[in-house]
Known about the structure:
The complex is a heterodimer.
Chain A: H1 5-23, H2 50-69, H3 73-83, H4 88-107, H5 114-124, H6 129-137, H7 140-146, H8 149-159, H9 162-167, H10 172-195
Chain B: H1 3-8, H2 23-43, H3 48-55, H4 59-86, H5 89-109, H6 113-142, H7 145-173, H8 176-188, H9 190-196, H10 218-245, H11 250-256, H12 259-271, H13 278-297, H14 305-330, H15 336-368, H16 370-383, H17 388-404, H18 413-417, H19 423-461, H20 463-468
Amino acid sequence: MSRLSLPLIAVVLVGAVLGVQVAAGGGRYVPVSPANPCTPVSVPPIPAQLEPLAEQIVLLGLDSAACQLGISRERLVLALAESRTPNPRESAALKAGLVDAVDMLARQGRLPKVSQLLPQALDQSNLPGIAKTIIEAIPDSVVDNLLPTAPLLRRTIDELDINRLLHELNDPRQLNSVLQSAILQAALSQILGRLHP
Amino acid sequence: MGQGSQLMGTDRSDQPAIPLTGRTATVVALSLGVAVVLGDAGVVTLALPEILRDFGAQVWGVAWVLISFNLVLALVAVPAARLCVRGDPAVATAGGVIGFAAATTVCAVARSLGVLIAARAAQAAGGALVIVGSLELLVATTGVERAGVRRWAVAGVAGAALGPVIGGLLTSAFSWRAIFVVQIPIVLLALPAAIALRGRVVQRRRPTPDTLPDRPHLLANLALALLSAALTAALFLLVLLLVDGWSRSPAVAAVAVTAVPVAALAAGPVFRGMRAGTRSEAVAGSVLIAGGLTGLALLPGAQLAWTLAPQVLIGLGLGLSVDSLTAAALRDRIPRAIHGGWTIAARHAGVVVGLAILTPIFTADLRHAQTPAEEAIARLVLDAPLPASTKLDLAEQLGRRLSAERGRVPDLRPAFKALRVPATQAHAVASLENDLEDQLKRAATRAFRTSFLVAAGLALLALGPALALRDRSRS
C-alpha cells in the first residue's frame, strides 16, 4: 500500500462531506437580513378597519423613515424600542414617513372611506351616547365629503405627538387615547376648514 | 533502528517481571487512572453551561475551569516525570492519586468559581504524577515496552474522547458536581495497584550523550500540540454550540458528540491494517481533523444529524494521529516517563493555546451576532400575520428577554408563554415562535463559524511537522 493512500483517502472523505454540506446550503445558514427600506413593497388588501389600516400605515411609514435616515427599518424599530425618545431627526423622519405612507396608499386607492371606519371608531370612542347617535345619523356621503380619508390621516399625523405615542406603546388604553385624540382633533380641524375655507 | 533501540535490545522491557496474578487488574486500574485524569481535561466541557448559570459567570471566566487544569498539567507534566525518574514511580503515582482525589473532592463541593478553578489546578498537579508514573508502571506490569506504551496512549485517547460524553450524561442526570464525585472512587482504584508496585520498577540505565540524544521528539510533540489545540475546538465549541446555541440538553449533546470517540476507536481497526506508517497516519489525521472542523463551520442547518459526518472525520483523525504521534514521540526514547511527560505537556499546552485563541474569538462573535439576530427577530415580528396589538405585546415580552440575557443566546419561550392570544391567532403565533427560534440558531451557528475555521487552520498547521516526520524512526 502506497504511503500516499491514507492521506488520499482522508482528502476524498473530507471532500465528500464538505461537498454535501455546501450543496445543502452550508455557509448560507445565517439569519435573515433586513430588507432594503428604500425598495417599494407590495401592499396587501387592507380591511376597512382601524387597526389593520393603522398597522399598514406604520409599516410603510417605518420603511420610508428608515430610508430617509439611511438605516434599516428593523434597526430604526430597535433603536426606538430601546430609547423610547426619538431624536428630532428621527421624529421628523417618522412623521414624514407616515405621511408618505398615506400618500402611497391614496395613490393606490387602498384607503377605505371614513364612513367605513366610522362605526368601529365610534364603538371604541368615549363620546357620550347622544353624540354617537347623532354622528351615526349623518349620511355616509356627507361624512366622506366632509372627511376625505387621506387629508384626515395627514392631519392626524400632523397632530400626533410621536414621543408620547412611543411612551404609550405598552399601554393599549393610553395608546388608543392618544390616537383618538389626534384623529378627533384632525377631524374637527378638517370640518372647520371645510366650513370656513 | 538507531543506537537507542540497540540499548533497549528487544521490545521487551528490562523491568523485573510482575507476577501474572493481579496483572490484569493492575493494568485496568492504572489505565482507568490515566483515562480519568486525561478525560478530566475535557470532562466538564458539557457542564460549562450549567456551571456558568450556577455561578452567574461569563463564558471567559468559566473557560478557566478548563484552562486552569490544562495549563497546570502542561506546566507540571515534565517536572512530575523527572520526579518519577529520580524516585520510585509507584510512590509518585500513589501520591498523585491521593492528591488528585483530594482536589477532586474540593471540586465537587466548590461554592465559588474561584475555588473550583483553584481545585482544578490542584487536580492537574496530582494528575500529572498519575499519568507519567502510570506510564512506567504499565510498562513494568505488562513487561513489554510497546504494549505498555500503547495501553497508556490508548487509555489517554479513550479518556480524552469519552470525557466530555460522560461528563454531559452525568450533568444531565444529576449535576455537574456528579462528574467529580464519580471520578474519586475510579481514580482511587489505582492506589492499591501503585502501592503493590512499590520498589518493583527499576529505572533503566540512562544512555550516554554520544549514543542516544535524550531530547524530546520536537516534530511529534509540535504536531500533538497543534492537533490538541484544534481538537479543543471540536469538543469545547461544538458542545457550547449544541447546548447554548441550539438549546439542546447536556444529555442530548453528550449522545450527539459520542460520534467523535466512536470514530476515534474505530480508526485503528479501519485504517491500521493499511500499515501506512506514522507520517501517513499523522498527515491523514491532520487532514481529517481540519476537514471535520471546516464541516462544523459550514453546517447547513441546526439539526444534530448535520454534525455527525464532521464529527466522524474528527474522530477518525483523532484516532489516527494522536496515538500514532504519541508512539512516535516515545519510541526508543528514555527515560520514558520524561518523554511521556513531554507528550502530555505538548497536548495540554495545545489545549490551552486553543482555548486562549478561540474563546475570545467566539465570545466576540457571539456578541456581534446579537445585532443580526435582533434585526431578524424584528423583521419577522413586524411582518408576522398578526394584529398590531399582539405584535406590540410580543415585542414588549421579547425586548425583556433580549435585555435579560444580553451576551448569551436568549430563550424566547417565556416571551411566548406570557402572551395571551385568541385561538384564531394561536397558529400564527406558534409559527412565529418556530421562526424566531430558527433565526437564533442561525445567528448562533454563524457566530461559531470563524472559531471552527481558525481551529481547522491549527489542524492544517500540524501538517508541517507531520510531513517532516520520518516513518518509524526518531527525528
